[in-house]
Amino acid sequence: MTGAARVTLCDVGPRDGLQNQSRNVPAADKVAIVNALSASGLPRIEVTSFVSPRAIPQLADAEQVMHEIERRPGVEYVVLVPNLRGAERALACRPDELNVVMSVSETHNRANLRMTREESFAALTGVIALSRERGVPVNVSLSCSFGCPFEGDVPLAGIEEWITRFTEHGVSAYTICDTTGMAYPRQVREIMARLRDRFPRHVFTLHFHNTRGLGVANVLAAAADGFDRFDASLGGLGGCPYAPGATGNVCTEDVVHALHLEGYETGVNLEALIAAAQSLPAIIGGDIPSQIAHAGPRTRLYSLDEALSQE
Amino acid sequence: MTGAARVTLCDVGPRDGLQNQSRNVPAADKVAIVNALSASGLPRIEVTSFVSPRAIPQLADAEQVMHEIERRPGVEYVVLVPNLRGAERALACRPDELNVVMSVSETHNRANLRMTREESFAALTGVIALSRERGVPVNVSLSCSFGCPFEGDVPLAGIEEWITRFTEHGVSAYTICDTTGMAYPRQVREIMARLRDRFPRHVFTLHFHNTRGLGVANVLAAAADGFDRFDASLGGLGGCPYAPGATGNVCTEDVVHALHLEGYETGVNLEALIAAAQSLPAIIGGDIPSQIAHAGPRTRLYSLDEALSQE
Asked: Which of A7, A98, A150, B239 sits at a 20 to 30 Å CA gap from B202?
C-alpha cells in the first residue's frame, strides 16, 4: 500500500464496446474478454445488456455470456437493462447490480430510446421496484449530463431533478454520463461539485467518451476533486453515432496508465490489461483507438539497436 | 476580451508533421498549409527544417517554402536548423527565429542525431553565435526532457545543466520537449516548477506528443500552472519512431478546443483551423489522428432527423 487514493474502474467494453461493432462477436470471445478483465484486477465489469434481441441482435447472447463467464470473488458483474422484460431476464442470471439508463435530454432520450423521459422514468421505476424485491442494487445512468448533441448544454437543475425523483425510489448510485464526448474538465468539476453538494450521500460514477480528446483529462480532473469511480472501455471501443470517425469510450488501459502515473491505485495489472486489449483487433476485425495498447506504458524502454533497425 | 489567460501556440505540423509522411508532400501544399495556419490566427508556425537534403529529402524544399509563404504581420515564422550549414541557408530566408535541438539523453542524441551531446552542443553554439551576429533570436529545444525511450527518466539536474550552459551563450528561450510521449501531468508540473524556479527570466515552451493519450492533459496541467507557450501539430501529425502505431504531436485543433473550453484565449479561429486540418488527408493520403477534425467542437449540434437517418 502506498497510501495513494484508490479509484474504482468499471469496464463497459463487453457491453458498450462490443454492441457497436459491425462484425458479430461470438459469445465465446465476449466470455474470454470478460474473464481477461476479471483476471487483470478490474473490480467492476459491465458484462452485457438485456435488450430486445430484435433491437440489438449483437446482444442476443446475454444469458449465455452471463452463464459462461468465470465469476471472480470481489469483482462486481453489472448488466444493463432497458425495461421490466429485460430486468426479468437479467435477474435470472444473478448480476451483482442492474444498470438502467435514461437521458436528461428529452430529444436525446427520444432519439436513443424512442420514448419521452417520463415514459423512461415510469419504465425504470418498475425495474427498480422489481430489483429491490430481489435484493439486487440498481444504478441509474443519466445520459447527456454534460451536453446533448441536439440540445447543447443541459440545465443542471434538470439533472438534479431526475436524481431527486429516482432518490425517492430508493436509488443512491448514479452514473453521470458524457454520452457523446462533450464534457470538459472545468465543466466536470463544476457539475460534480454541485451534485456532491446537493446529494452528499450518493455514490457517483463518471462515464466519459473520448470523442473530442478530453476523456483522460476529464478523468484526471474529477479524480483530483476526489471522485473515485469511473467507467472506461477496454481498447477504447464504443461508438458515437453522432460523431462520425470519432473514438468511443475513454480507453481503460489509457486511464489506468494515467491514474497510476498520477499516484492513484486501481488494483489493475496494466500489463494484463494491455494483453487483453491487444486481443481485440482479431476479435472485432479492426484496429482499436487505445494509445497504450499501441505504444506501451512509458516505462517500456528500447535498445539502441532496436531504434536504429527501425529506420 | 474576456480577461482569460492568453496562451501562445506554435504549430509545428509543417515541419514535424510533414517530414514524417511516407508520401512526399509538394512544396505548394506545404505553403498552403502554412498560409491556412497563418490565416487561422496562430501566432507562431514552425515552417520547415534546414537539414541536409540527403538526410531528409522531404525537406529539400525548405528555401522554396520559406520564400513562397505569405507572411502575416504578427505571426512568427520559425525554422529548425541542425548545424551551421543549415543556419546559413535558413538565415538567408529571413526567419523570425531559429530553433535548434539536442537531446538531454545521451543515447537518444546518438540515435537521433548521430552525435554525442557535447558534439551537438558545440555545433549549436556555433549556430547561436552566427544567429546573434545576424540579429535573429534562437530557441533551444531539449528533447526527451520528460523521459527517454532508451534510458527512462532523465535527471532534472542534467536538464538544468544544459540550460545553464546555453544560457552562458545568451539563449533565454527553451522548448522542453516530450519527444516520445512519456510526460504525465504530475511530472510536468514538478519539472516545470523546478525550471521556472531556477530560471525565472527564461521563456519556456512545452512540446508534447500524444503517444500515450496524455497530450491534452499535459497541456492543461501546465497551463493551469501558468505556462503559456505550447507546440502542437495541425491534425495531430508527426511520427514517433519508437512507438509503432502511436499518434504524434498533440493535435493543434484538439488543444485549441480544450483551451477555449477551459477559459484560455489563443487568438485562433477554431473553425478555420478545423478546415485546414480537414485538408490534410488528401495531402498526406491518409487519415489524421485529430479528434476535433472528426467530431467537430462540442458546440456542433445535430438535428433529430440527422440522428435518425444515421441509424
From this structure: B239
Whole-angstrom Cα distance, residue B16 to residue B48? 8
Please answer yes or no on whether A213 and B246 come within 8 Å at the CB atom. Answer: no
End-to-end CA distance of chain A: 42
Q: Test A243 with B296 for CB contact under 8 angstroms.
A: yes
A281 — contact with chain B (CB < 8 Å)? no
What ipTM score was computed for the predicted complex, to two decimals? 0.94
For the stretch B265-274, pLDDT in tens is 999 999 999 9
- Sign of torsion, CA B252 B258 B259 B260? positive
CATH 3.20.20.70 fits domain A8-309: yes
pLDDT tens profile B201-256? 999 999 999 999 999 999 999 999 999 999 999 999 986 555 555 568 999 999 99
A–B interface: beta-carbon pairs under 8 A:
149
Active-site amino acid positions of B: 240
Segments of chain A with pLDDT less than 70: 1-4, 20, 239-247, 307-311
Contact across the interface for B311 and A242, Cβ inside 8 Å: no
B282 interfacial to chain A (CB closer than 8 Å): no
For chain B, give percent helix, strand, coil, nearest 5.
45, 15, 40
Cell of B226: 501558468
Q: How far apart are CA A291 and CA A253, in angstroms?
A: 8
A242 closest CB neighbour out of B107, B214, B302: B302
Instruction: Cell numbers for B105, please give them.
Output: 539523453
Which cell is A41 given?
484486477
* Contact (CB<8Å) A186/B262: yes
Give CA–CA dist B159/B163, Å, rounded.
6
Whether B240 and chain A come into contact, CB under 8 Å, resolves to yes
